[in-house]
TrEMBL record:
Entries under NCBIfam families matching the protein: mevDPdecarb
Protein name: diphosphomevalonate decarboxylase
Organism whose genome encodes this protein: Asanoa ferruginea
Molecular functions (GO terms): ATP binding; diphosphomevalonate decarboxylase activity
Domain of life of the native organism: Bacteria
Top EC group: lyase
Length: 332
């Protein structure tokens, strides 16, 4: 009997960003990061072990995967097979509700869903921490999407001498903080430079990189306090400066990496105007031109309307905190 193992995971948006690795093969970040998992844009991934196939078959958003996306998925399956002590090929079908590779965290939901589905398909019995470590090997941000709500990803927790064991995410209990995140998709196209390549270039050439990592450590401590207090203005200010600082490190790379577009800047200006008008609204951007605006849920309709007017033609979606990655198994 063939068994389909289907997993669902949601993207997360970092309030304290991960940018840059100290080990590319093991995907170990240079610094800790902190995020909110969303309730929109799920990835649904089905994995079936296919002993009769000679090679993995991978379908991404309805089409046969090719090139780097396929290579990253098959390398991840190799890792799962190694952990499980198995060798059969797999059939993988993965669908993103969000444009892939547009800086909307599709790799986070993608590898979290793949870790859950492939882990189950090959019979790995992983606790959430181990699952998070496994997802990290696909994409470090995916370690956080294993958990719902807020999560912190440690670059090195220091529980062992083994770098792999020390890097994982865990949930962060934030009972008094339930914000909205208004997402302005100003451009849904794929990014010009992959985050992997951009990170490498930033770490190797940007004179602003290590000062930002240092500042990020201070930001993380302040962020934990602000979240505990449920203080949206403090959380927003820290998140905005952390994200702008990350983009500054890229702008100072040689050659510069610039993900921000004129539409991004127009949305950032509209966020400043909202604040001048007394609305608590704060922006964050990832490896792409799209802007996510943190605000009180009651202000979300006004924030959405403002950013839509600032970047006509963009899709605007309001997210709240969402669930962790999980399994939906079907028998055929
Ligand atoms: O995990 P990756 O390779 O998709 O890196 C993404 C990093 C950022 O989205 C820019 C920041 C973050 O912490 O999610």
């Amino acid at each position: 009997m063939a068994v389909d193992h289907t997993a669902v995971a949601h993207p997360n948006i970092a309030l304290i960003k991960y940018w840059g690795k100290r080990d590319e093969k093991l995907v170990i970040p240079n610094a800790d990061s902190l995020s909110m998992t969303l309730d929109v844009f799920p990835t649904v991934t089905t994995v079936r072990v296919s002993p009769d196939e000679r090679a993995d078959r991978v379908t991404l958003d309805g089409a046969a995967a090719e090139g780097e996306p396929r290579q990253r998925i098959t390398a991840f399956l190799d890792l799962v097979r190694e952990l499980a002590g198995r060798s059969e090929a797999a059939t993988v079908d993965t669908r993103n509700a969000v444009p892939t590779g547009a800086g909307l965290a599709s790799s986070a939901s993608g590898f979290a869903a793949l870790a859950v589905a492939a882990g189950a398909a090959y019979g790995l019995d992983l606790d959430p921490t181990a699952l998070s470590r496994l997802a990290r090997r696909g994409s470090a941000s995916a370690a956080r999407s294993v958990f719902g709500g807020f999560a912190i990803c440690y670059a090195s927790r220091g529980i062992s001498a083994d770098a792999d064991l020390n890097a994982y995410a865990e949930p962060l209990s934030v009972p008094d903080f339930d914000p909205a995140l208004v997402i302005a998709v100003v451009n849904a196209g794929p990014k010009p430079v992959s985050s992997r390549a951009a990170m490498r270039l930033t770490v190797e050439t940007s004179p602003l990189y290590w000062p930002w990592v240092q500042a990020s450590r201070t930001d993380l401590a302040a962020m934990r306090t602000a979240l505990r207090r449920g203080d949206l203005d403090e959380v927003g200010e820290i998140a905005e400066r952390n994200a702008l600082g990350m983009h500054a490190t890229m702008l100072a790379a040689r050659p510069a990496v610039r993900y921000l577009s004129p539409a991004t800047v127009a949305v950032l200006d509209s966020v400043l105007l909202l604040r001048a008008d007394g609305v608590s609204a704060y922006a964050t951007m990832d490896a792409g031109p799209n802007v996510k605006v943190l605000c009180h849920p009651a202000d979300a309709p006004r924030v959405a309307e403002t950013v839509r007017a600032a970047a006509p033609g963009s899709a605007v979606v309001t997210a709240r905190r969402g669930p962790g990655a999980g399994l939906r198994t079907r028998y055929q």
